[in-house]
Amino acid sequence: MKLTTGQSGRRGIPMPLWLQGAFESVQLAVITAVLILVPIGAVFFTGGFGNPPADEIARLAGQAWLLVHGVPLNVSMVTGASSAQGQAGVLSLVPLGLTLIPFFLAWRAGRRLARASYTDQLWQALLGAILVYAALGLATGYVCRTSSAMASLPAAALVPLIPVTLGLVIGARREAGTWGTLIGVDAAARMAAASQISRWTGSYLWSAARAAFLAVLVLLGLSALLFAINIAVHWADIAAVYQGLKAGPVGGAVLTLAQLGYVPNFTAWTMAWSSGSGFSLGVGSSVGPLGTAVAPVPAIPILAALPVGQLSWGVLAMVLPVLAGAAAGWWFLREGENHFDDWLAIRIRQRWLSAGLGTVALAAVIGLGAGVLGGIAAWFAAGSGGFGRLTELGPDPVQTALWISCEVALGVLIGHTAGPWLEGAKARRSAREEFDPFADR
């Protein structure tokens, strides 16, 4: 094996890429486990769990580690004197905010592995990291099995790879700069070798996909703002629930941390609520912009912010997806990749007809893409709380996708149609300021 000189100036044997990937994977898992174990240990040492053995707390932390990575847990609870009397269910409501911890740690690891690898060797480091993380997940699922909660071993091995692999690949791509540098395939050269029709089609669909992503991103941002405003309005009710729980400083802090982990979920629920499809807070419940009908909910402070009764202003929230679609339509106009409209203009002499058909087709494509992305976000944010009525929590992905598709498409029609007038107003204003810099003063 060839000796090399490292950054420190010392000569030595280089670490194999698969071993470096394995080291990064172990480091990622340990840091995530420590961040989960610290609050659970704080509650344990302050007597919040009673007096259970330390190994039960360690298994609880391992189960939380699995849930943070998206692994559903099969849970059971004894309700009678006999062990045969009880309830069983699946806990699959994943705290997406905490899932960002392994994702961003994997993003950092992917960048480090990309710096240490040549273009045609990166797969070795990534494969080593993925295999080791799958083994760690499998071991955690096996060791942390209890009579009240356990994870399927295949799920414990494979599901944690979803956020970790995404983080590794995105981080490596960020460090490499382009996919061509990352995987050795020059996408630009391949596109240049394609026909004109293929290039136009690819550019049109890629721009439409980015516009759909922009629409969902804007909608999630507006939903997060609406959620924050609702929290501020109902802050007194939330504080009252905190006081009623009497969890103490440590317990209150851990409860707040757990709720913060579900903030992305609540944002996606707000997105579904503003679209009109609403979300469920238990079997048979309905939370929508026109009214809320739910049974008594658990004493969780954040749930005190639920809008209740008939909401006269709720219909105004349904404007948010339309605004997001208008932003996407205007962005697509500025991108200048509406090649389908160009193709229609060549074949249809009436410009009003070709422009109308092109705009409607664009709205349908972007609306469809936004609906798919919104439905995926709703699917990730929903889940089961384990038992009884709480087996249905969150929005329905299909209904959310349909509502968002229609509303974003309407917004795209508005934004893409009004865009030329808005751009013209900006151009006229810029020309006026260039001619007379004191015109607005």
UniProtKB/TrEMBL annotation:
Classification via InterPro entries: DUF6350
TM region(s), chain numbering: 25-45, 90-110, 122-143, 149-170, 211-236, 311-333, 353-381, 401-422
Residues forming coiled coils: none
Alphabetic keyword roster: Membrane, Transmembrane, Transmembrane helix
Pfam family, one: DUF6350
Descriptive protein name: Integral membrane protein
Lineage of the species this protein comes from: Bacteria, Bacillati, Actinomycetota, Actinomycetes, Micrococcales
